[in-house]
């Protein structure tokens, strides 16, 4: 693999342009495109989804995905990556035709402005962290660890899971191979993987790659209402609100609880995990929704203070009842097994 700049190949041969050069019609759907899948010789459907990061996934017979190189390799039946890349680069440089919306318009994700007044309103309803804990259908004994039973609930069966001790130390293994060691992990990708390794956006093979992450089962929403930026000195846009809440005796966990209970009116709330710090991360079931149905809700969450990074379905999230780098537990404060995915 040495000597191939995969990122450069992907920039030179954009996936959407390559698909069009094959005569496939790309139909915009939200921030994605759909087209029929030539890999399984699909005639009428549109099993392939092209995501804004220029990766594809066939939700039909193939049940696989990847980048433009993976697609070309499968299409041409080539086993060798170098040969595939050479053939890709030798072809005419595909460009999107003018009848299609400009790619730039869809890849430049527009996040809405923060809606401070709406956040104040929702928090003022008074549904606090105490309320959220009491509303949880499962009441865990706080003296015991519950990682394994929680994972059994949210990922039934034996799916491939990508978990990590840190952002640099991670593995992708079957759930049963993880059994017994999950509570030590800090992170988990909130969606199953469909392959052990995939190409990262930097063009490296990795056990933590979006190209090897299956379609979204859970959308995790995190709120980070810090008063200061990472330098510990510069105030964030949230500082005035955090001060307001502080003087009213409202904690950041209370604020997160109110916002998750608000979002639960839009999406089924399966779980809330404490970061081991101040914030609470909500896991929402979205398997039955398309990306374009989910995205407006993510935008809404962003306007209420959510971090947009978790829209990346491969983004590491806090392991339920896992262990933070500083040794703190990340307890599960809310769990509703009835809303989790069934028999993944
Ligand atoms: Zn297919």
Give a brief rundown of this model.
This protein is α+β, with helices and mostly antiparallel strands and 344 residues long. It contains 12 helices and 17 strands.
Question: How many domains in all?
Answer: 2
Bound molecules: zinc ion
The strand line-up of the biggest sheet is: 1-2-3-4-5
Q: Helical proportion?
A: 25-40%
Structural class of the helices, strands and pairings?
Answer: alpha+beta
Largest sheet: 5 strands, antiparallel
In what range is the share of β-strand residues? 15-25%
| SSE topology string | HHEEEEEHHHHHHEEHEEEEHHEEHEEEE
Low-pLDDT segments: 95-109
Count of β-strands:
17
pLDDT averaged over residues: 88
Protein architecture, described:
This protein has 344 residues and is of the alpha+beta class. The protein is built from twelve helices and 17 strands. It has helices spanning 6-12, 15-21, 68-76, 81-90, 103-107, 116-124, 129-135, 147-154, 175-178, 239-247, 252-263, 291-303, and strands spanning 27-29, 32-35, 48-50, 56-58, 64-66, 160-164, 170-174, 187-188, 198-199, 205-206, 218-222, 269-274, 280-285, 317-318, 322-323, 329-330, 332-335. The strands form five sheets. A five-stranded antiparallel beta sheet has the order 1-2-3-4-5, covered by helices on one side. The chain is globular. Bound molecules: zinc ion.
């Amino acid at each position: 693999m040495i000597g191939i700049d995969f990122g450069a190949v992907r920039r030179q041969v954009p996936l959407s342009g390559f698909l069009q050069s094959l005569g496939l019609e790309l139909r915009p759907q939200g921030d994605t495109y759909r087209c029929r899948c030539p890999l399984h010789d699909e005639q009428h459907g549109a099993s392939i989804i092209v995501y804004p990061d220029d990766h594809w996934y066939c939700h039909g017979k193939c049940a696989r995905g990847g980048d433009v190189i993976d697609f070309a390799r499968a299409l041409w039946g080539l086993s060798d990556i170098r040969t595939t890349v050479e053939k890709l680069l030798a072809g005419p440089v595909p460009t999107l035709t003018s009848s299609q919306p400009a790619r730039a318009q869809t890849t430049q994700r527009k996040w809405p402005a923060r809606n401070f007044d709406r956040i104040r309103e929702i928090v003022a309803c008074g549904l606090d962290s105490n309320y959220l804990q009491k509303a949880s259908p499962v009441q865990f004994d706080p003296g015991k660890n519950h990682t394994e039973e929680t994972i059994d609930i949210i990922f039934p069966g034996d799916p491939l899971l990508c978990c990590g001790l840190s952002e640099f130390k991670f593995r992708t293994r079957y759930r049963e191979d993880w059994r017994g060691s999950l509570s030590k992990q800090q992170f988990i990708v909130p969606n199953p993987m469909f392959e052990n390794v995939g190409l990262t956006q930097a063009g490296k093979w990795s056990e933590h790659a979006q190209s090897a992450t299956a379609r979204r089962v859970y959308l995790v929403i995190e709120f980070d209402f810090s008063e200061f930026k990472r330098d510990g000195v510069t105030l964030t846009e949230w500082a005035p609100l955090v001060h307001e809440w502080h003087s009213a005796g409202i904690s950041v966990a209370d604020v997160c609880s109110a916002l998750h209970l608000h979002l639960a009116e839009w999406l089924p709330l399966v779980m809330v995990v404490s970061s081991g710090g101040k914030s609470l991360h909500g896991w929402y079931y979205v398997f039955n929704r398309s990306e374009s149905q989910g995205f407006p809700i993510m935008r809404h969450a962003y306007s209420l203070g959510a971090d947009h990074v978790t829209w990346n379905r491969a983004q590491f999230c806090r392991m339920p009842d896992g262990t933070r780098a500083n040794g703190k537990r990340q307890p599960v404060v809310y769990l509703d097994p009835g809303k989790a995915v069934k028999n993944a």
